[in-house]
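Morning. Coffee machine broken again, so started the prediction first thing and wrote up yesterday's gels while waiting. Chain of 558 residues, entered below exactly as on the submission form.
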Amino acid sequence: MTRRLLCALFAAILVLCPLLLTGCDEEKAPAPLSLSASSTERTISVRWDAAEGADRFRLFKKNTADGKDFRFVCDVTDGFSYTDEYVEKEKEYVYKIKAFAGASVIAEGICAPVRLGPSPEITIIRQIKSLTYEAQWDKLDTECVLYGKTSSEWREIGRSKDGFLRFENTNNYSEIAVSTTAADAILSSSVTLGTPGSVFAVTALDDWTNVVELGISEGDWKYEIARSETSNGVFTTVGSAENDVFYDVKEEDDTKTYWYRLRCLGDRFESAWSEPVRLGTNQREIYYLPVIVYHELLPENERAQKDLHDEDVITPEDFQNDLIWLKEHGYTSISAAELIAFLEGEAELPEKPILLTFDDGKYSVYEWAWPILTKHGMKATLAVIGSQIDSATKAPQERENADAAFCTWDELAEMSASGAIEIISHTQNMHAFSRDGRQGANVAEGETASQYAPLASADAKQILGKIEEATGAAIPAMAYPYSIRSEESDRAWIAAGYKLLLCGNSGSVHTSKWNPMIREAGLNLYSTKLRRFTRLEDTSVEWFLQSFENMLVRNGEE
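Came back before lunch.
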């Protein structure tokens, strides 16, 4: 009997439980609550219906793009709306509301996605002529107001429904912005107005290169340069200027007379073109600087003993004959420091300057070159490999049996103190023809500028620090190892602090091997680089400079 009663009771439970559970769910399920959202240019307003028995409402929101769940916004106890000011343009939001009675949720609702209301943004402002400008912005189905900023306030310029307005800038507005006519409208991001600038001098450095000097504004402006064969012809863009000097390097020997003009480009701004200026306007004086690079001096008997056959090793007698020829032909040797001072407007150059350089820092410069220079009253620039000088300084006695002996830091200091030898960098640790995919001090294949720049900066800091410690002066000049370079490496070494980069005898450095320059251009990416002739045992300085002498005669400078 007991067993039958238990079975009957169990069956009744199975029948009644679902009914009881369903009844509980229906009592706990929140009722639907209507929720809507609307927006202006900068806020989103959320409104919901009243819920019978509710003592507070809890609002949540989520950004549909970030993939995260709803986040708490606030509790509202005295109304049925909320204005959200913490929203961003271009983002879409969804809001959810929950009505509470005590601790229980009695109603809830969710709104459709909403984003800030439309607001215009200026797409471009073009200067048509001196005072005439055109502004374009995102076209909306409403009237928009264009504003200009004076030195003290924003003023209304005009109104348009077309997303376009031409205006006269008689009030000298510096910035332009746009908004709708709504009561709570906000200004768009503003556009700063630039000026076209001017071309005030154009000098032909040689048959390939014209130097265009510009009058431009300070700031992050880009200036586009164009040229034409006539003042009113078709102008072709030839490049953009990073500073107030532009070098128009032509692809071939070209002696045509060109006209140049420029315009200013900024963030959503284009100025009018400046007035064209002809080649030869305010022609500057051109200075030439032949640069010779030596490597090592050894008497014939020492070359034979060491069995050296390097063609860049010459005898002390050859070097002395070079100096005698140079003096007889009116050349004056200068230092890298003197050239930097000249280009920075702080010194003058002699009538026929020449820069004599030695690469590496071999001991033969101390033993042979320095006495010969002193004897003839001339000077030279010695580019040293820091790591090699360090090794020689630690173990100078090992130089006796070395094929390539280097100077010590004390010997460099001694020569520097005499005034006949100037010490500059040949890098601290980057004098290797090929190492880990890098050739010399150039950018390695696949290496980015951001990866390379710290390496250049660290090397420059180390070698210049050692030179200054030894000589008392860190001349900001460097000779490229193996003359291997690129524009990317040039920029990195200049950023590292160098003002002169001594390169090889390649047309990729300059089209002219005589390093023509104008003082007014100062130091820049072009003038910082110097092309050098390597003195070999069978190519004398006289042989190299004879064509230079002939050019001077043709130009009437001799």
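The domain at 31-110 is CATH 2.60.40.10 (Immunoglobulin-like). Going to sketch it on the whiteboard this afternoon.
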